[in-house]
Amino acid sequence: MNAPSGGGADEEEGRSGESETQRLARNFSELLQELRVSQTGVQILTGFLLTVPFTQRFPELDAVQRDGYLAVLTGSVLATGFIIAPVPLHRMLFRQGEKAWIVHTAGRLAQAGLTMLGLTLAGVVWLVFDVVVGRPASLVAGGVALLFLALLWFVYPLAKRAD
């Protein structure tokens, strides 16, 4: 059985009888719904990462692990910023006649946030494996996590788009 096509040209060009303003409002609303899924997860991840230096084992980390921790913390904060950015962007430019720019920019920010989130998640997998089982296994685990997320979040949708 074939999967549904997902709307095709009607999704991008607008539904029958839908004005440009209505299409932009729908696109922005759909984007915000999508971001709600990732916002909660990235905020929890960032909050958790902020507590790590205050744990008893943190002083035991070697220099590579500490640098890796700082990298994933930074990535998580950046992902949080990118994923939440469409909301203040809209709020600051609300009723300024910039809806098309807001929708376009919000989409780009969301993509940047998801990219940063994927890198951060792979980095967290690397860090946890490095602390728990050692460097060689951590490199494999982090690489597998990165490959999995890249395939699922980017390659698979791009392959479908190319159909």
Task: Note down, in words, how this protein is organized.
Keywords: Membrane, Transmembrane, Transmembrane helix. It holds the Pfam family DUF6328. The structure is a single chain. By secondary structure, this protein is an all-alpha fold. It has one domain. Helix content is 79%, strand content 0%. It contains six helices and no strands. It has helices at residues 9-13, 20-51, 63-84, 86-93, 99-132, 135-162. Helix 4 (86-93) runs antiparallel to helix 5 and helix 5 runs antiparallel to helix 6 (135-162). The radius of gyration is 19 Å and the shape is elongated. The relative contact order is 0.11. The model is unreliable at 1-10 (pLDDT under 50).
Strand and helix layout:
Blueprint: H1 9-13, H2 20-51, H3 63-84, H4 86-93, H5 99-132, H6 135-162
Region (Disordered): 1-21
InterPro entries: DUF6328 (IPR046291)
Transmembrane segments: 68-89, 109-129, 135-156
